[in-house]
Amino acid sequence: MRRIIEVATHDREELVDITLQVEGVVRECGPPDGLVSVYVQGATAGIMIQENWDDSVPRDVVRLLRDAIPRGVWEHDAQDGNGDSHLKSGLVGPSETIPLMDGRLGLSTWQGLFLCEFDGPRQRRSVVCTVLADGFD
Fold first, then answer.
1. How far apart are CA 94 and CA 129, in angstroms?
2. Which of 78, 113, 120, 130 has an alpha carbon 20 to 30 Å from 93's alpha carbon atom?
3. Residue 64 near residue 137, CB atoms below 8 Å
């Protein structure tokens, strides 16, 4: 089964915790065991599994990427000024795959799923969640 989560972002660069929305998709689709693939559409965003207990961790991720990949120094900036956004997105990647175990995401206690915005704010980022049931009994 496939569902699309729509996420609004508010800053140029931010990590948005989408764990609860993905858990809702898993509950709706209902297989106890399997996989869920979480994929963001767009060339300037990514998906990351990261600690979601301490808000400083997502801010640190943004700071690390901002320091490592600064704005305004890339060839693509001549096109539309977001060369850094494309590079950050490519480094993080557009998707994560999480096991489903007993109807729940197989994340550890402190892990969450984040939409990584690198070219916001955006009214809508589409995150595709594809749930695959385990075929073994």
1. 12
2. 78
3. no
Is-contact 111 4, C-beta < 8 A? no
Q: If phi over 0 gives left and psi between -120 and 50 gives alpha, with beta otherwise, what is residue 43? A: alpha
- Predicted TM-score (pTM) above 0.90: yes
Closest to 133 (Cα-Cα) out of 59, 43, 19, 29: 29
Rounded to an integer, what distance in angstroms lies between the CA atom of residue 107 and that of residue 117?
22
**How far apart, in whole angstroms, are the C-alpha atoms of residue 98 and residue 75?**
35
Taking only the tens place, the pLDDT of each residue in 42-92 is 999 999 999 999 999 999 999 999 999 999 999 999 999 999 999 999 999
* φ, ψ (nearest 5 deg) of residue 12: -60, -45
